[in-house]
Amino acid sequence: MTEERRRAVLHAIVEGYVATHEPVGSKALAETRALGVSSATIRNDMAILEEEGLIAQPYTSAGRIPTDKGYRSFVDQLAAAALPEAHRRAIGTFLSDAVDLNDVVERSVRLLSQLTRQVAVVQYPSLRESAVRRVELVRMGAEHALVVVVSSDARVEQQSVALGEATSDEDFERAVREVNATAHGLGGARLEAALTLWAQAPDQVPWAGAVADVVVAATRGGTVERVVFAGASNLARAGSGLEADTIAPVLDALEEQVVLLRLLHEMAAEGDDVSVRIGAETHYEALSRTSIVAAAYGRDASSLVGALGPTRMDYPGTMGAVRAVARYLSKVVEL
Amino acid sequence: MTEERRRAVLHAIVEGYVATHEPVGSKALAETRALGVSSATIRNDMAILEEEGLIAQPYTSAGRIPTDKGYRSFVDQLAAAALPEAHRRAIGTFLSDAVDLNDVVERSVRLLSQLTRQVAVVQYPSLRESAVRRVELVRMGAEHALVVVVSSDARVEQQSVALGEATSDEDFERAVREVNATAHGLGGARLEAALTLWAQAPDQVPWAGAVADVVVAATRGGTVERVVFAGASNLARAGSGLEADTIAPVLDALEEQVVLLRLLHEMAAEGDDVSVRIGAETHYEALSRTSIVAAAYGRDASSLVGALGPTRMDYPGTMGAVRAVARYLSKVVEL
DNA sequence: GATTAGCACTCAGCAAGCCAGAGTGCCAGG
DNA sequence: CCTGGCACTCTGGCTTGCTGAGTGCTAATC
Asked: Among A83, A309, B52, B332, which is least packed by CB within 10 angstroms?
């Protein structure tokens, strides 16, 4: 079964390189790994693996390191790694006493970054369409008001609207009463219809339409387009294998969100349990030296958690941790 | 005025080192700077400056670089630098169409990081004690409820409380009605007294005390202990002058908040217009290679904006930008 | 046909040695 | 108090030579 041994060699190279961050040679492999063959045989295998583009030499007569394609092959063949019991417990205790959605997300991202020793990212969970519970309008200065919408699934959204011309206190109070009477308990198309009607009523305040828009938007479902991250220092920590000038673009991508969001969308579309992008597979220059491991969670598995680190990362461990956190998040978020 | 020239020499050394990131020698100084004296004289001055601990040689017979103390002396003698007109305009346009408090803070921190090319930090503004406008309770699962408090100054706070034993829908609705009736329009000590009374009423739901606490906390004034940052990639960008292993601890400090908050508190206490901590003056190991420039803003100047970067930073420029953003923020937040 | 042993070859990394240039400290004279 | 001059020091860059790890190939062996 020479084919099978070649896989084993690739496997060993990946693990060796991940562990030491140094090119691994045939001799060392023959000695430390119980492959049962001599270094010469391994050299032959290596030559073939190199032809297939799975490994490469950083320079002539150095050991081999895996290419992106090599990692890919390794990952595809990977059986899920069991999560250490200690980690499993940590997830439970760490997340169980979260106080609201923000808190859950915040804790998750911290936890995941600690478990994986990578940068963790969590996309805000998607939201069910909900009904209006209460609308508050609060004056801010002469020309603006803040619209606060509390919806039935305990979300709170706020946004300011311009009042345009001066509005009397009576009109203002009347608008608050009316919009609550109109919207209370409604959601979706019926809410929209009712509010449109209300806004068009004769003698209505001129900013009623703007308020209606905010209320409708606040109860709409869908994914909030936002990710939070934690553990950025893991990128810079010694032995991350990333040079100082590679990490700046990565930090930019994390802060800018948009690149990251697009990538997460793509990965979500793949629909695997845990999905992995390796190096250039991310299709973003800034991330071409990093890999990202992500798993979906929540209603319809529509949001993502992930870990991002150097291509030379511990894939089995990271995938295990990401999967576990995703599962836990699903439980918490779906109730 | 030999004393005065020595100041000028220090000044020149700081500027030279900031610009080139290389030790600056007496000859180069005599040639490029119009100091009107020869390099030998400058050498004598340098010897004295070195004795005073203001400059140092990285190794024998290299040029000099400023010490923390040298930067300090430089900064203390600094006249405020005028802010480029383009920047001034940018602040106006960039911040003017912010939509709510979060948005203001978010935009400010981005803007400041761009202006200074450093990591910008903004502490959330302090809040006036406010009155209750509306309290909402939303059931979440069987055992928890979310308390949402909208206060008169348009703040919205939310927190979940445990219900303990099962509560009937009637009791729940009654509690909502009562708490609103009790708390509406009240703030401070009177609010606290009223709610305490309400929570202790006979036949009251067991979680009334918890709700009361949340409501009181939500309207209390004071500074929200939270900072946001942006521009972390500036730390890693080429030429920042920070090594890869110095930046990891800095990123940690930024994410952990607590170190940063303590430092900002200390700086706020100094009460200067713009306050600067240089290198070891931060008293934190993690930040010993960085400086932080901060200015207070908002009511009672109780919150801070700042920029954090390598000790070798452009102090005049950074101080100008920080001051300008702080002023603008004050305007926006105080209305 | 697959595996192994042996051998010649390549090349990074390190140490040593050398040189040039920048910078210094000090001294004597203006 | 300033300046010119001089001897001295040290880094950084360059070359050179060596060692050891690792390779590819071929011929012999299972």
From this structure: B52
